[in-house]
Amino acid sequence: MKRFLTVILVTFFCGACYAQHKIELNLTKGQVYEQKMSLVMAIKQTINNTDIVINMTINGTTAFTVTDVKDGVYDIDVAYKSLGIKTEMPGIRTISFDSEKEDNNDTVSTSLRMMKDKPFHMKMNKQGKLLAVSNVAHLYSSIFDKFPNLSPAQKQKIQGQLESSFGEKAFKNNLGNMMAFFPQSAISKGGKWTVKNSVASANMDMQMDNSYTLDDVTANQYLVSGVSQMTSPDAGASTMINGMSATTDMTGNVTTSMKINKKSGWLEESISNMNLKGVISLKANDKMPNGMTIPMEISGKGTITAN
């Protein structure tokens, strides 16, 4: 009898260990899902043997309203609920912009405030792949009506600042990489899978090779960890930085821990730590006849929580 019970218990626990879990989005039409994001970065550049460190913080809260579900594809209205940017540079006062700041003389903060609660649209499948983004431009459509005295150059500068952090390209990068971690098939506790994606910004593109592990399964959450190797996809390829032709060669890694809601598949918490190192080489030009090679290090911590 004891041997029989032992066999039952071993079978039960082994079954629990090897249970297969289909981790994917299972969102509900009409439901609003919110996420609060914070990214803190330190960018160190060495120019003429002098280290220059720029500290940057970007934060915001975003609401995702599921308007339709069809054939495994979600139509989602996206609206920013709060936005903030802070930059600290040596020898320069801290520059801070916040959508919650009530100061009409602060053009950027006022612009961020006007971007709140103006939904744009996206499509995403059950594997977290961002299929389409549309109507982002209307975030900025009426901002400059409030500032008729701004010159075209000032308008272009402000719009560039907003787009670089919260525009369509930034949104695709942030959300596309944040949600594109789901395994393509069912997986058991301790199982591993890989995902490849890329990060594209105004000045730098990076290829990401991600390896994920299902560490644990609780009553309500999947606990997942990840290690991502980042490389410049075309080291030596030219790009434009501040109007100058440049090449970028960066490598590094990101470590991530995530908590995923078992029922909805929604990301409830993510903590990521990033470290990159390499060089940016500015090619010879009229302003810089001999060109310049700038060693660079980037470290950062990103936190996402579901409100």
Description:
With 307 residues, this protein is an alpha+beta fold. The protein is 17% helix and 53% strand. It has four helices and 15 strands. Strands 2, 3, 4, 5, 6, 7, 9, 10, 11, 12, 13, 14 and 15 form a 13-stranded antiparallel β-sheet that branches. Strands 1-8 form a two-stranded antiparallel ribbon. Helix 3 runs parallel beside helix 4. The mean pLDDT is 85.
Record keyword descriptors for this entry.
single chain; 307 residues; alpha+beta; Lipovitellin-phosvitin complex, beta-sheet shell regions; 13-stranded antiparallel β-sheet; two-stranded antiparallel ribbon; 15 strands; globular
Write the layout of secondary structure elements.
Blueprint: H1 2-17, E1 20-21, E2 32-47, E3 50-70, E4 73-89, E5 92-98, H2 107-115, E6 120-125, E7 130-134, H3 152-166, H4 168-179, E8 187-188, E9 192-200, E10 205-217, E11 221-231, E12 238-241, E13 244-261, E14 267-282, E15 292-306
Antiparallel strand pairs: 1-8, 2-3, 2-15, 3-4, 4-5, 4-6, 6-7, 9-10, 10-11, 11-13, 12-13, 13-14, 14-15
Helix pairs in contact: 3-4
